[in-house]
Write a structure and sequence with these properties.
By secondary structure, this protein is α/β, with parallel strands linked by helices. The protein is 47% helix and 17% strand. It has a six-stranded parallel beta sheet, with helices on both faces. The protein has a five-stranded antiparallel beta sheet with strand order 15-16-14-17-18. The chain has a three-stranded antiparallel beta sheet with strand order 5-6-9. It is rod-shaped and about 130 Å long. The two termini are 60 Å apart.
Amino acid sequence: MELKLTFEHVAQFMRRAFKNVWFVGVFIVSLTTLFSHTVLNNVAVLELAENHLSDLRVALLGLPRPQSQSIAVILINEESLGEVPYRSPIDRSLITELIKELEERNVGAIGLNMRFDRTTEPAKDKLLYDRLRNVSVPVVVSMVSNETGYSAEQIEYSERYLEGLRTGLSLIYRDTIDHTVRVSLLKLVQGRKENMGFTATLAEVLGIELPLEERIPIDYRHGPDPLTPPFPIYSANQVAGLPQSALENRIVLIGPDQGHTRRFRTPFSVLNQSFAKDLPGVVIEAHVLSQLIENRSLNVPSEQEKIIFTILMALIGCLLSLVRVNLLVRLLMPLALLLFAWMGALLGFILYGLIVPIVMPTIAFILAIIVSAFWQWRNETLKRDKVNRAFGQFLAPSVVEQILQNPGDLELTGEVREMSFLFTDLEGFTRLTESTEPRVMVDLVNRYLEDACDIVMSHGGTIDKIVGDALHVMFNAPLRQADHAQRAVNCALELDGWSKAFRQGEQQKGIDLGVTRIGINTGSCIVGNFGGKKRFDYTAHGDAINSAARL
């Protein structure tokens, strides 16, 4: 019993709450936001769309920057490997000579972004081993670990070969949806174990303060023009022919570029799906290092901030649905607001590097409009049903429609108007009720009044009251009728003819139904709503009504 009462109380509270427009607004905003982030946020196609819109902003709206003066990239590519006896693993004598050449050119630091996970030729291995430990400039080497998918044998060899050197994991993170590299892992934390990333280690060696975050969004650097890369990029076999100043004091990153397996999709790839737009891992590391050196950042909102954006758009959509304008404006306003919001998202990226989510807030905005419109349609339908139930049996359909379209007509106002009135009365009704079985009497009166009311409403009359067997009818209110007097007469004539036939039919059943007496009159009276705001009664008062009743 207590549970039932509790449920009834909750149901009663909810019914009252949903009559409050502010509560309904909060409910719709919460519903659309929750749906967007719990259901749609896990739909791969929508995630892919959001990623592509983010990539387009990075690729198209990034500000041009002068080519970096602090970083250079050397690729060990097909052109370089043509001069060595084998391709994999990379001939270590090539790497040894390259380090020696860079040392002679007074570079600022060297980053070797490549694997050393197995032996090659012992003499060449030893030569590079010694060179790495005797180089006069800072060197950071990429290492392997089980976290990055290497076997125990590879890890054991790498640790032994690189022992005593500054090392870091190559932590290029690809998105699980479209495999695009948008984030850099500065370190890999597993329990109490913390492994620094390759770029983070290199930045630390250079004395650069690292962010506290484990991962950061990559703020890809744009070159000064579409044909100039953001960093000087050379093939390994070109280094010997470069001017002395080309690499002096620069941080030089060395890495392989040997086909698709060594290239990664980036936001730039959204403009061109070809292999040429994908970047070697070492170039991506150069972008991250440049970002750390220049203390730049790409502002990607947290999940909480994304929810706030979505709530804001849902709220705007909900409020927009309340605006009472014509259909064309109602259709154009959401489009204009969406365009304004999208332009704001683009401007936010250009000015502040802010990647505002677009897809989910847009969906929440549209859903809020649809749900709000449905809610309004439901309320209007309920209101129409309520008015129809309250007035449909007393007023002509045209009058009910006027009330629905203009609820203000039901205000407590009055006016003097010339009107026509029709009163009916059934002769001997009291005697008949006393001598007739109740069930038969109820059926008789219902049929009599139903047919009579249909005739009245077919002539545009308003049924003011039904008192027992009697009808009180008025014409020219609430709708104006220039021919109200003629309508009243025509209605009376049809009622008279119908009532005679109805009376004869009942008499054949043994029911002594009396004559229907009809009185009509035209005159001026006061018409309007009477009875207070809660129980209004649209009626008329005046001598013309009393005369019709007496007739």
